[in-house]
Amino acid sequence: MIDTRRWNIVKNINKSNEMIQEAANYLIIGDTVAFPTETVYGLGADATNKNAVAKIFQAKGRPQDNPLIAHVATKEQLLNLVTNVPDYVDRLIETFSPGPITYVLPSNGVCAENVTAGLSTIGVRIPSHPVALALIKACGLPIAAPSANISGKPSPTTADHVWEDLSGRIAGVVDGGPTGVGVESTVIDCTQDIPVILRPGGITLEELEVVVGKVLIDPAFEKGETKEKPKAPGMKYKHYAPEVPMWLIDGDFKHMQQVINNLIADGKSVGVLANRNTLERLSSEEKVYAHSLGESLEDVAANLYDGLRSFKYGEVDIILCETYQEIGIGQAIMNRLKKAASKLIHE
Question: What is its biological role (predicted)?
């Protein structure tokens, strides 16, 4: 067991610079530190240090062929890790970075080979969260960072989520409060003439098309998985699964009510994840536990992982979650829900 430090910047704003430097020092000596980004909390290590990066895989129980994303603070740092950058990447960086977008480009070998999982490409992004940027600048290193959770579980959007999963496994957690976007970055393959979305996220297809015109979607993302070596995180393995089996319910609130009634008749306790409007229409039952995901799709994205973590074994037997339109950020929401669900029930 590791004695995990926790730096609470939210409660100690006047000491934030000192705390960030302490956390940066752990990264400099090759340890792992979790920190907030605008999407989810990441588990960081020096991306140029193979042994440090190996600690990420060990702490998370992450498969070795699942590549990591390198986080940098500036465009110059990004360009120092890659080669052969198409012109449209400049337009994307100008518009969306810092922000929830990751660029997959040919690696120049600066980052350790276990960051790229042996691929010739590397995913790099510039996060917009001020704590993430301050930490990267303080250590002067590119930081390899997947989500700071046990592999396969819902991603963490608060420091408490990280603590629940990784306390005793990592050197420290920088508590910068809840994250904003709630789903991970959009990963876009920039190795071809036309960019290809490998994973939907905080920047939508529609937003990308406004800037660069045609954008393709990787067939593996459409199918939800790939048997090949994944080009980006989230492409091959089951992710985001809550402790309790979750069913996706496709249809209106009446269909959701029918499924709830059938489960209760079978003696089951039911957890429901849905937007506020749907929950208000459902009949309350003694054995139904509801968790609101908010109203807009942006609310749902921000609250999704907290919702998936909110139900525990012993409290409910089944989680039911409604489906959402796959437009805008709804595409990223449904990508995560399909990977988390054990069953999809159509009307």
Answer: Required for the formation of a threonylcarbamoyl group on adenosine at position 37 (t(6)A37) in tRNAs that read codons beginning with adenine.
In the chain, the amino acid numbered 237 is Y
The β-bridge partners of 236 are none
> According to the annotation, is 155 in a ligand binding site?
yes
Q: Check whether 199 is labelled as a binding-site residue.
A: yes
Q: Where in the chain is the domain with CATH 3.40.50.11030?
A: 246-346
Is 102 annotated for ligand binding?
A: no
Q: Look-up: residue for tokens 């969260």?
A: 129
Q: Is the N-terminal amide bond of 67 cis, ω within 30° of 0? A: no
Domain with CATH 3.90.870.10 in the chain: 5-223
Mean pLDDT per 10-residue interval, the chain, length 347 residues: 94 92 98 98 98 97 92 98 97 98 98 95 97 97 97 94 97 96 96 96 96 93 57 61 93 92 93 94 84 96 95 91 95 94 89
| Residue 145 assigned to a binding site | yes
62 among annotated binding-site residues:
yes
Tokens 């459902």: give the residue: 282
The model's pTM is: 0.93
Fold that domain 5-223 belongs to in CATH: DHBP synthase (3.90.870)
Q: Is 116 annotated as a binding residue?
A: no
269 is in an annotated binding site: no
Please check if 292 is assigned to a binding site: no
Residue 33's closest CA among 129, 117, 145?
145
Rounded CA-CA distance 63/19 in Å is 31
39 in a labelled binding site: yes
Is CATH 3.40.50.11030 the right assignment for the domain spanning 246-346?
A: yes
